[in-house]
Amino acid sequence: MIPAGVEVTQQNSTITVKGKLGTVQRTLINPLVTITKQGDRIILASPSMTRKGKRMLFTFKAHLANMMEGVTSGFIYKLKVCIGHFPFTLKIDGQTLSIANFLGEKIPRLVKLLPNVTVKVDKDIITVTSPDVEAAGQTALNIEKATNVGKRDPRVFQDGCYIIEKPGRKFT
């Protein structure tokens, strides 16, 4: 069932979902699953209900549910900035997040932000928002990985940006 305020279009195997927060487009191709749109419903069918067919059917169902939830309520990831040894700064320049003076490094670390993602830095909290759950999650992971401390004791050098909240889960 398509929720109110959401518009779904299908061209071959590409599904486009539009809502108040944006547009999410995804290509869902598998010979075991057919997707058809009839009125305000999306019908997923599998000609052979084998284990593989059922798995792909429920995978497509989850992708479509995430797309519809994303365009109506969005997905939010939060990261905590931990500074112990060297104070570093975060700057957003267009589609790039710059992490300057991380562990005293002279060259800033750059994180490319994915399209359709909004990143806000507020003191020690970074908020990543997007209607696409995969783009939001990948951007949050890219920020976390950019501040990875290598060849140092992680018990001592805890500087970095760490994911503290995901959609549906909190880490405290």
According to CATH, what is the class of the largest domain?
A: Alpha Beta
CATH architecture annotation of the largest domain: Alpha-Beta Complex
Strand content: 35-45%
Q: What's the CATH superfamily of the largest domain, by name?
A: Ribosomal protein L6
Tell me how many strands there are: 13
Classify the oligomer: single chain
Global outline:
elongated
Residues in helix, %: 10-25%
Structure report:
The protein has 172 residues and is an alpha+beta fold. It has 2 domains: 7-72, Ribosomal protein L6 (Outer Surface Protein A, domain 3), CATH 3.90.930.12; 75-170, Alpha-Beta Complex (Outer Surface Protein A, domain 3). It is built from 2 helices and 13 strands. The chain has helices at residues 51-72, 133-146; strands at residues 7-11, 14-19, 22-27, 34-38, 41-45, 75-82, 89-93, 96-100, 109-112, 118-122, 125-130, 160-166, 169-170. Strands 10-11-6-12-13 form a 5-stranded antiparallel beta sheet, covered by helices on one side. The protein has a 3-stranded antiparallel beta sheet with strand order 1-2-3, with helices on one face. β8 (96-100) and β9 form a beta hairpin. The chain is elongated, with a radius of gyration of 20 Å. The model has no long low-confidence stretch (mean pLDDT 94).
